[in-house]
Structures
1.
Amino acid sequence: MAPSAVMRASGPSRLPATVWALGAVSFLTDAASEMIVPLLPVFVAGLGGGALALGLVEGVANAVASVLKLVSGRLSDRFGRAHPFVVAGYALSAAARPLVALAAVPWHVVALRAVDRIGKGLRSSPRDAILARSVDSARRGAAFGVQRALDHAGAAVGPLLAVVLLVGFAADVRTVFWAAAVPGAMAVIVVLWFVREPSPDGPGDTHAGAAAGRSPSPDASAPPLWRFLVPYAAVALASVTELFLLMRLGATEAGLPLVGYPLAWLGMHVLKTLAAARAGGWSDRVGRRLVLVWAWTGMAVAYGLLAAFDARPIQWAALALFAVQAGAADGVQRAWVADLVPRARLGTGFGWFHFVEGALALAASAWFGAVWDMVGAAVAFGTAALLAATAVVALVAFGSGRRSPPDGAGQPGVPEDAVDAGQ
């Protein structure tokens, strides 16, 4: 098949309706969430919390979700149904998220964010399994790219809505939090009526290499999932909450207006949207590992710039670089997990992926916030840069080394312990 034909086959216009429906749900959910998150630094500070408290807000929330992502993924495989977990997860988050408006002390925010993330834990792995089963492996990167691009687009719209409420309607922060209930409820309606679940026992996917005119490997074996999860664990430990990047810009010290937080968040997610939309389809053609090596290297460079320079233009450039690499890596990481896991066990595979991500979230945010409080931002970002660089080295060392996505992805010949090796 000619390369141009592969590009057309894997393009967004060729993706099934379920991919777009899941993208719409992610758009609405992130619009609701990101009306709140960019305002948390000033909100938590107003409640008496510092950098460590801010790190715990996001770290605890993601750590709670990580355990449920593993459990819900396994259960969805066991019962052969992922859709109920997805519906329940989105509904719980939509109900809990606006209650942050009632917080009186920092630990109230921690608890309510944890409830919100419980919903995320219920839905994430089953949702990704539905998405992966909805397309063959030749279009998997494009499918995850579209879903993650719409997710980030929603994350861009959310801060914009917050700005409109804060400036146009002179609303206070707590009113913005209450208003986030509207897009959250809309997301639940979409997932109930428009997301259709493919059978988990459908035919094996066609390998992306074959779709591109390349023959699958004769032994049809994929690298076990742990060969990706090892380097991913290193980058997850470096992936501190992006709220720290806003703090590094010196927003509070420079007296940046309240609306500056959501506007900076808006810019980051616009860049993430553009990067995710392009990187997913690109990984279908040139391979997952090449895209991730570039993206994770960008993370290390961005952290290094934030550690070494106090000049505002360089810090803004580093923030932009961080946003581009994060958007590029997001969908490609998930597509590579799906390449390594048998179709009937995608929920479990994504469960392990999200578990590694979330289990290290608390450690990442806690160590970063503690180092910042004790010795300063430069040392914290410098340490994060070293961790990200280590992840790049590990990805090269543990990766398959193939130009195409790993051979044997989604084929019957892939051993079942490709998933269990992550244990």
2.
Amino acid sequence: MEKNRLAEMYKLIEKAKIFDKVGKESESLKIYLEILQNYFPNTSFCYERPSIILEKKKRYQESKDICLKAIELIENQKLGGTSEKFKRRIERLDEKMKKEIENKPKKKSFKINKNLGKIIGLIIAVAILSFTLIYFLTPKESPYKDIYIDMDNFDREIKLDGSMFIDKKGNNLPKLTMSMIEYARNICNDNPEVDNSIIVVQKGTIGFGILLNQQIDKNRAKEIGKEFIKALSKAASNSNDKLSPPSAVTYGSLYDSYDNVLAIGFSTTDISFKATMNKKTNVLFWRK
């Protein structure tokens, strides 16, 4: 590829990543599709990411087509990476397309206007986390009661204030940054079952909210929730050598300083999974 076109492609890739970082997946997808149509990226990421977004948008056949193309290029040694992850995604896509055909009559009533769906999604996400923060403990006992999440717009950057990292006793807590939060959100949002996610920090408590786009069982919910919590801990430990990273059996020492609340669900009346973790315990307790 000519140097000029190569430079153009890398600029587009960086632009797509920026849109991804702030949660604008539709804009990100447009750029990735433009890259695949007009350029020849030699990294599997440029195929994997759009296939994930398309799957989340239930555009299963388009996602499958990209996976098939990636497998072909990898097997012909024209693309870096391994084909196994694309093959696994194709298996999942085939299963979803099969279920979609079987359940098509039942799903008609759930089709809603795109903009209305976005608004409802924002309201749902607020309700999920707000309900959970109030739910677990009585007002006198709860360190979560004062947490408020303004999610009028997912794409607006949440401002982190220094007072968020001081507990009620006045002790300084490990600081979190927007880049750490965005890293964790991107990890969570890469799951095809996740529509969006949010993290809120206030006075010794971290609230994690996950908005789903499809039914999942408890084991899968636990997997996604644990991954989300560990992703934030990993990002924090990468920037603070005093913090130990998460492992296969722990969530990392970030949570020696913070209590945690996790809510996973679909709507204000369907908060499917709830969990809490008290600081220093490193044990996630599932409420439902």
